[in-house]
Amino acid sequence: xxxxxxxxxxxxxxxxxxxxxxxxxxxxxxxxxxxxLFPKGELKRSVRVFDQSQSGLDRLWGxxxxxxYDEFEGLRLAITQVFRLGRLRMVVLTAFxxxxxxxxxxxxxxx
Length: 111
Description:
111 residues; alpha+beta; six-stranded antiparallel sheet; 2 helices; 17% helix; 46% strand; globular
């Protein structure tokens, strides 16, 4: 049996505290671990939002992306909330690897 990476365990614990999860998927790359959550409803608690985006088509369809961040058990987490038709459809949790060079805490640029 393969050993479970403790980062994934922390991400799943954080996810279950953040939102009621219908399903989830995961991936990783050289910079971070990504957990894709498909929620049953809204967030259970608030997070620190630093930016949001909405394209012209998003405005028509009631969509937007909200970018937030948090720290949990030593993890630096980026939280992206994806809305469609005015409802939260997906949450992406990204835990950056310790060696990843990222601006922390994240902040809004160029506005």
